[in-house]
Specification:
Blueprint lengths: L6 E5 L4 H12 L3 E6 L9 E4 L5 H9 L7 E4 L9 H20 L7 E5 L11 H9 L3 H10 L7 H24 L2 E7 L7 H8 L1 H8 L8 H12 L10 E4 L9
Parallel strand pairs: 1-2, 1-4, 2-3, 4-5, 5-6, 6-7
Helix pairs in contact: 1-9, 2-3, 3-6, 4-6
The structure holds nicotinamide-adenine-dinucleotide.
């Protein structure tokens, strides 16, 4: 993969999968601009400290980005142990808002990669709801829809990862046909990052026990990052609207 002369914005770049994605892309020549609420722990080409749960702070962050952005990797996210409003804002509404704002700075050939989750795999069961939410294009319209259609806290993480997969899938072809910009998701299974323990707490001991035999081990962040980089790369120029599992085969056991 060759990202020479390409600018990539990576959210969640201060930890876990986002940090590893930034490192991976830089090693292939990309100029990486990180966005995170916490300061970075690795060398980046530029960094914008921002809270991605608010329209105003997202807009202020975008104002600091260059006029041309080749790729956007939306990695920042919170687990379901956070409060429901934060999960909705960071994992879905804020991600959409940032993407909509960055889109205008992307040339043809650009791409967006969204980090979803294996926990979003049941989206077909709620496809109509997710399509209705996707149709509320602005952050505030999404908030208003959610006020009318509240999401249970104990499954809100799964709900908004499902919603992200549906929004990405629906949106992708319009942008590809009109602008030549691709959008894809990766859906990791468990990954060894600081929030892995939160996922175990969120799912409960029984579910974790039930799933334990399905995989050899949790992934390392550097087993997810190259797939994100691949989806940004020219090698994936005919891949759009896809959700790629990066889960050591875990999803295959749900059949
Ligand atoms: N770790 C896993 O097992 C796993 C599995 C599937 C999907 N994911 C997804 O992968 C993505 C990355 O998670 P990770 O495991 O690397 O976790 P992590 O906690 O190591 O990294 C998440 C990053 O997002 C940032 N972030 C969170 N809220 C933010 C906000 N409001 N504004 C700006 N930055 C914010 C954090 O500061 C952190 O640097 C998330 O979207 C997560 O849902 C993780």
């Amino acid at each position: 993969m060759n990202f020479q002369n390409q600018v990539v914005v990576v959210t969640g770049s201060s930890s876990g999968i986002g940090a590893e994605t930034a490192r991976c892309l830089r090693s292939q020549g990309a100029k990486v601009i990180g966005i995170d609420r916490h300061p970075p722990a690795l060398t980046l080409d530029a960094f914008v400290q921002a809270d991605l749960s608010e329209v105003a702070t997202i807009d202020a962050a975008v104002a600091q980005l260059p006029v041309r952005i080749d790729h956007l990797c939306n990695v920042a996210g919170v687990p379901g142990t956070a409060d429901g409003a934060t999960v909705a804002r960071v994992n879905y509404l804020g991600l959409r808002h940032l993407t909509q704002r960055v889109l205008g700075r992307m040339p043809a050939g650009g791409s967006v990669v969204n980090v979803a989750s294996i926990l979003g795999h049941e989206w077909p069961q709620r496809a109509a709801m997710h399509k209705a939410l996707a149709a509320c294009e602005s952050f505030d319209a999404g908030l208003a829809w959610l006020a009318q259609n509240p999401v249970a806290h104990d499954t809100c993480y799964q709900y908004f990862k499902e919603a992200l997969i549906v929004w990405s899938t629906l949106q992708s072809q319009r942008w590809f046909l009109d602008r030549g910009i691709r959008m894809n998701c990766v859906a990791p299974g468990p990954v060894m990052t600081p929030i892995l323990g939160d996922f175990a707490a969120m799912l409960g001991a029984e579910r974790v026990q039930r799933d334990a035999h399905r995989i050899k081990r949790p992934a390392l962040a550097d087993e997810v990052a190259p797939v994100i980089a691949f989806l940004c790369s020219d090698a994936a120029r005919w891949v759009s609207g896809a959700t790629v599992p990066v889960d050591g085969g875990m999803a295959s056991t749900y059949l």
